Amino acid sequence: MTPRTALTIAGSDSGGGAGIQADLRTFFANGVHGLVALTAVTVQNSLGVQGFTEIPADVVTAQIKAVASDMGVDAAKTGMLASAEIIRSVAKTLDEIGEFPFVVDPVAASMTGHALLREDALEAIRTELFPRATLITPNLDEVRLLTGISVVGSASQRAAAEALLEFGSRWVLVKGGHLQGTTECVDLLSDGREYIELTGPRYETENTHGGGDTLASAITASLAKGASVPDAVAAGKKFIERCVAEAYPLGAGVGPVSPFWVLAQPRAST
Q1: Which of 47, 78, 129, 131 has its CA 20 to 30 A from that of 123?
Q2: 3-state class of 173 per DSSP?
Q3: CB-based contact 133:124 (threshold 8 Å)
Q4: Model confidence over 113-127: pLDDT tens digits?
Protein backbone atom coordinates (compact mmCIF):
# COMPACT_ATOMS: atom_id res chain seq x y z
CA MET A 1 0.00 0.00 0.00
CA THR A 2 1.44 3.37 -1.00
CA PRO A 3 1.58 5.74 1.99
CA ARG A 4 0.43 9.34 1.97
CA THR A 5 3.07 11.97 1.23
CA ALA A 6 4.23 14.96 3.25
CA LEU A 7 6.59 17.65 1.97
CA THR A 8 9.08 19.52 4.12
CA ILE A 9 10.44 22.82 2.80
CA ALA A 10 13.31 23.52 5.18
CA GLY A 11 17.02 23.66 5.88
CA SER A 12 19.31 20.80 6.82
CA ASP A 13 20.93 20.15 10.19
CA SER A 14 24.38 18.60 9.97
CA GLY A 15 23.90 17.35 13.53
CA GLY A 16 20.80 15.41 12.47
CA GLY A 17 18.53 16.61 15.28
CA ALA A 18 16.45 19.34 13.63
CA GLY A 19 15.58 20.65 10.18
CA ILE A 20 14.77 18.24 7.37
CA GLN A 21 16.47 15.42 9.24
CA ALA A 22 13.99 15.75 12.12
CA ASP A 23 11.13 16.17 9.66
CA LEU A 24 11.95 13.03 7.71
CA ARG A 25 12.36 10.80 10.70
CA THR A 26 9.11 12.15 12.16
CA PHE A 27 7.28 11.53 8.89
CA PHE A 28 8.61 7.97 8.86
CA ALA A 29 7.63 7.39 12.49
CA ASN A 30 4.11 8.60 11.68
CA GLY A 31 3.67 6.45 8.60
CA VAL A 32 3.95 8.93 5.73
CA HIS A 33 6.46 9.21 2.90
CA GLY A 34 8.64 12.30 3.22
CA LEU A 35 9.41 14.63 0.32
CA VAL A 36 12.03 17.38 0.53
CA ALA A 37 12.68 20.84 -0.83
CA LEU A 38 15.98 21.96 0.71
CA THR A 39 16.27 25.70 1.42
CA ALA A 40 19.64 25.96 3.15
CA VAL A 41 22.62 23.88 4.22
CA THR A 42 23.57 24.64 7.79
CA VAL A 43 26.84 24.04 9.59
CA GLN A 44 25.84 23.12 13.12
CA ASN A 45 26.23 20.72 15.99
CA SER A 46 24.83 20.41 19.51
CA LEU A 47 26.48 23.72 20.47
CA GLY A 48 24.68 25.79 17.83
CA VAL A 49 24.66 27.04 14.25
CA GLN A 50 28.08 28.09 12.95
CA GLY A 51 26.95 29.13 9.49
CA PHE A 52 24.66 28.36 6.57
CA THR A 53 24.44 28.62 2.81
CA GLU A 54 21.14 29.44 1.13
CA ILE A 55 19.89 27.38 -1.79
CA PRO A 56 18.90 29.63 -4.73
CA ALA A 57 15.18 30.37 -4.69
CA ASP A 58 14.63 28.93 -8.16
CA VAL A 59 16.22 25.65 -7.07
CA VAL A 60 13.96 25.53 -4.01
CA THR A 61 10.86 25.98 -6.13
CA ALA A 62 12.10 23.50 -8.75
CA GLN A 63 12.34 20.85 -6.02
CA ILE A 64 8.75 21.53 -4.94
CA LYS A 65 7.42 21.36 -8.49
CA ALA A 66 9.38 18.18 -9.28
CA VAL A 67 7.95 16.12 -6.42
CA ALA A 68 4.45 17.64 -6.61
CA SER A 69 4.07 16.94 -10.34
CA ASP A 70 5.21 13.32 -10.04
CA MET A 71 4.40 12.02 -6.56
CA GLY A 72 1.74 14.42 -5.33
CA VAL A 73 1.66 16.24 -1.99
CA ASP A 74 -0.95 15.35 0.63
CA ALA A 75 0.32 17.96 3.12
CA ALA A 76 3.32 20.26 3.47
CA LYS A 77 5.23 22.18 6.11
CA THR A 78 7.91 24.83 6.18
CA GLY A 79 10.86 25.22 8.49
CA MET A 80 13.89 27.45 7.97
CA LEU A 81 13.29 29.52 4.83
CA ALA A 82 16.37 31.75 5.18
CA SER A 83 15.35 34.80 3.12
CA ALA A 84 12.46 36.91 1.89
CA GLU A 85 13.19 35.85 -1.69
CA ILE A 86 12.83 32.17 -0.84
CA ILE A 87 9.65 32.84 1.16
CA ARG A 88 8.01 34.73 -1.70
CA SER A 89 9.04 32.07 -4.22
CA VAL A 90 7.68 29.26 -2.05
CA ALA A 91 4.37 31.06 -1.58
CA LYS A 92 3.96 31.61 -5.32
CA THR A 93 4.84 27.99 -6.09
CA LEU A 94 2.37 26.61 -3.57
CA ASP A 95 -0.37 28.61 -5.29
CA GLU A 96 0.59 26.99 -8.59
CA ILE A 97 0.65 23.35 -7.53
CA GLY A 98 -2.73 23.02 -5.84
CA GLU A 99 -4.38 23.07 -2.44
CA PHE A 100 -3.51 20.81 0.50
CA PRO A 101 -3.00 21.23 4.25
CA PHE A 102 -0.07 23.59 4.82
CA VAL A 103 1.70 24.04 8.17
CA VAL A 104 4.02 27.01 8.70
CA ASP A 105 6.59 26.56 11.45
CA PRO A 106 8.02 30.10 11.39
CA VAL A 107 11.61 29.31 12.29
CA ALA A 108 12.66 32.83 13.23
CA ALA A 109 14.41 32.54 16.60
CA SER A 110 17.35 30.56 17.95
CA MET A 111 17.22 28.40 21.08
CA THR A 112 18.36 31.48 23.02
CA GLY A 113 15.60 33.66 21.57
CA HIS A 114 17.75 35.64 19.13
CA ALA A 115 16.31 36.54 15.72
CA LEU A 116 17.46 34.30 12.86
CA LEU A 117 15.76 36.27 10.07
CA ARG A 118 16.01 39.84 8.84
CA GLU A 119 12.92 42.01 9.20
CA ASP A 120 12.10 41.75 5.47
CA ALA A 121 11.96 37.96 5.82
CA LEU A 122 9.76 38.22 8.93
CA GLU A 123 7.42 40.51 7.01
CA ALA A 124 7.31 38.04 4.11
CA ILE A 125 6.31 35.29 6.56
CA ARG A 126 3.51 37.50 7.87
CA THR A 127 2.21 38.62 4.47
CA GLU A 128 3.08 35.75 2.10
CA LEU A 129 2.99 32.52 4.12
CA PHE A 130 0.54 33.07 6.97
CA PRO A 131 -2.43 33.91 4.69
CA ARG A 132 -1.86 30.60 2.88
CA ALA A 133 -1.42 28.50 6.03
CA THR A 134 -3.80 25.93 7.43
CA LEU A 135 -1.91 26.19 10.72
CA ILE A 136 1.02 28.18 12.09
CA THR A 137 3.08 26.91 15.04
CA PRO A 138 5.23 29.68 16.58
CA ASN A 139 7.07 29.32 19.86
CA LEU A 140 6.97 32.20 22.32
CA ASP A 141 10.17 33.84 21.05
CA GLU A 142 8.76 33.77 17.51
CA VAL A 143 5.46 35.18 18.79
CA ARG A 144 7.38 38.10 20.25
CA LEU A 145 9.29 38.73 17.01
CA LEU A 146 6.16 38.46 14.86
CA THR A 147 3.68 40.38 17.00
CA GLY A 148 5.61 42.21 19.72
CA ILE A 149 3.61 40.35 22.38
CA SER A 150 5.52 38.73 25.25
CA VAL A 151 3.51 35.77 26.51
CA VAL A 152 3.65 35.46 30.29
CA GLY A 153 0.41 33.61 31.01
CA SER A 154 -2.90 32.42 29.61
CA ALA A 155 -4.31 35.90 28.94
CA SER A 156 -1.33 37.06 26.89
CA GLN A 157 -1.20 33.68 25.15
CA ARG A 158 -4.77 34.21 23.98
CA ALA A 159 -3.96 37.78 22.93
CA ALA A 160 -1.02 36.45 20.92
CA ALA A 161 -3.24 33.89 19.19
CA GLU A 162 -5.72 36.62 18.23
CA ALA A 163 -2.94 38.87 16.91
CA LEU A 164 -1.42 36.06 14.85
CA LEU A 165 -4.77 35.06 13.34
CA GLU A 166 -5.07 38.59 11.96
CA PHE A 167 -2.28 37.69 9.53
CA GLY A 168 -4.66 35.27 7.82
CA SER A 169 -3.97 31.65 8.80
CA ARG A 170 -6.95 29.38 9.47
CA TRP A 171 -5.53 28.13 12.78
CA VAL A 172 -2.71 29.08 15.13
CA LEU A 173 -0.95 26.99 17.76
CA VAL A 174 0.82 29.19 20.31
CA LYS A 175 3.29 26.80 21.91
CA GLY A 176 3.98 27.23 25.62
CA GLY A 177 7.14 25.18 25.98
CA HIS A 178 9.35 28.26 26.48
CA LEU A 179 7.18 29.71 29.25
CA GLN A 180 9.25 29.86 32.43
CA GLY A 181 8.16 28.85 35.91
CA THR A 182 5.37 26.44 34.95
CA THR A 183 5.04 22.77 35.84
CA GLU A 184 3.14 21.96 32.64
CA CYS A 185 3.45 22.83 28.96
CA VAL A 186 0.22 24.45 27.79
CA ASP A 187 -0.24 25.04 24.07
CA LEU A 188 -3.18 27.09 22.80
CA LEU A 189 -4.89 26.16 19.53
CA SER A 190 -7.38 28.59 18.02
CA ASP A 191 -9.20 29.48 14.84
CA GLY A 192 -10.67 32.64 16.38
CA ARG A 193 -13.84 30.86 17.43
CA GLU A 194 -12.52 27.92 19.40
CA TYR A 195 -9.76 28.20 22.00
CA ILE A 196 -8.40 24.77 22.84
CA GLU A 197 -5.78 24.34 25.56
CA LEU A 198 -3.57 21.28 25.23
CA THR A 199 -1.79 20.54 28.47
CA GLY A 200 1.12 18.19 28.88
CA PRO A 201 3.96 17.42 31.28
CA ARG A 202 7.15 19.48 31.46
CA TYR A 203 10.18 17.21 31.55
CA GLU A 204 13.40 18.11 33.31
CA THR A 205 15.72 17.85 30.33
CA GLU A 206 17.88 20.24 28.35
CA ASN A 207 17.83 17.91 25.35
CA THR A 208 15.08 19.53 23.31
CA HIS A 209 16.83 20.17 19.98
CA GLY A 210 14.42 19.73 17.08
CA GLY A 211 11.32 19.78 19.26
CA GLY A 212 9.48 22.41 17.23
CA ASP A 213 10.33 20.72 13.93
CA THR A 214 9.20 17.36 15.27
CA LEU A 215 5.87 18.68 16.53
CA ALA A 216 5.08 20.48 13.27
CA SER A 217 6.08 17.40 11.25
CA ALA A 218 3.93 15.08 13.35
CA ILE A 219 0.96 17.40 12.85
CA THR A 220 1.65 17.56 9.10
CA ALA A 221 1.77 13.77 8.90
CA SER A 222 -1.65 13.49 10.54
CA LEU A 223 -3.07 16.13 8.20
CA ALA A 224 -1.67 14.20 5.24
CA LYS A 225 -3.63 11.17 6.44
CA GLY A 226 -6.86 13.16 6.58
CA ALA A 227 -7.14 14.24 10.23
CA SER A 228 -8.83 17.48 11.21
CA VAL A 229 -6.62 20.25 12.55
CA PRO A 230 -7.65 19.75 16.22
CA ASP A 231 -7.13 15.99 15.96
CA ALA A 232 -3.81 16.39 14.15
CA VAL A 233 -2.54 18.85 16.76
CA ALA A 234 -3.65 16.58 19.62
CA ALA A 235 -1.82 13.65 18.01
CA GLY A 236 1.27 15.78 17.42
CA LYS A 237 1.22 16.93 21.05
CA LYS A 238 1.20 13.32 22.28
CA PHE A 239 3.99 12.41 19.88
CA ILE A 240 6.32 15.24 20.91
CA GLU A 241 5.68 14.63 24.60
CA ARG A 242 6.99 11.09 24.21
CA CYS A 243 9.90 12.30 22.07
CA VAL A 244 10.94 14.78 24.77
CA ALA A 245 10.59 12.10 27.45
CA GLU A 246 12.92 9.88 25.39
CA ALA A 247 15.39 12.66 24.45
CA TYR A 248 19.06 11.74 24.71
CA PRO A 249 22.34 13.58 25.26
CA LEU A 250 24.53 13.86 22.19
CA GLY A 251 27.59 16.08 21.94
CA ALA A 252 28.64 18.78 24.36
CA GLY A 253 25.49 20.92 24.01
CA VAL A 254 21.77 20.35 23.52
CA GLY A 255 20.80 16.83 22.48
CA PRO A 256 17.82 15.96 20.27
CA VAL A 257 14.31 14.84 21.05
CA SER A 258 13.88 11.22 20.04
CA PRO A 259 11.27 9.33 18.00
CA PHE A 260 13.17 6.05 18.50
CA TRP A 261 10.51 4.89 20.96
CA VAL A 262 8.27 4.17 17.96
CA LEU A 263 10.54 1.29 16.99
CA ALA A 264 9.66 -0.53 20.20
CA GLN A 265 5.89 -0.25 19.64
CA PRO A 266 4.02 -3.42 18.65
CA ARG A 267 3.13 -3.48 14.96
CA ALA A 268 -0.55 -3.22 14.10
CA SER A 269 -2.09 -6.42 12.79
CA THR A 270 -2.92 -6.50 9.08
Answers
A1: 47
A2: strand
A3: no
A4: 556 788 899 999 999
